[in-house]
Write a structure and sequence with these properties.
Layout (H helix, E strand, L loop, with lengths): L13 E8 L4 E7 L5 E8 L4 E6 L7 H18 L5
Antiparallel strand pairs: 1-2, 2-3, 3-4
Amino acid sequence: MPLPEPAKTGYKYIQFFKTADTGKTSVWSCLNRKSNVILGTVAWSGQWRQYVYRPMEGTEYSAGCERDIAQFMDHLRRVEMGDAI
C-alpha cells in the first residue's frame, strides 16, 4: 500500500505520515526520508496529557532529529488543541 502524502514539515532527515485519526487527536509515523524506514510513532498519551514519541527498538537519534520530533509534537498540540499561532 502506498504511503499517504507526508506532513509538510521541511525536516531534512525525517518525515511524518498520519496513520490514524481518533477524532480529537491523531497518530503519526516518523520515517527516515532516505530509506522510508519507520523510526517510531507520535501519539497522544492520556497519562502524560500530551503528544509523546514512541521510538522503534534499536533506533538512535541526533540532537537535531530529537529537536525536530519535539517541534512536530508541539505543532500538533497547538493545532489540534486549538492553540495554533
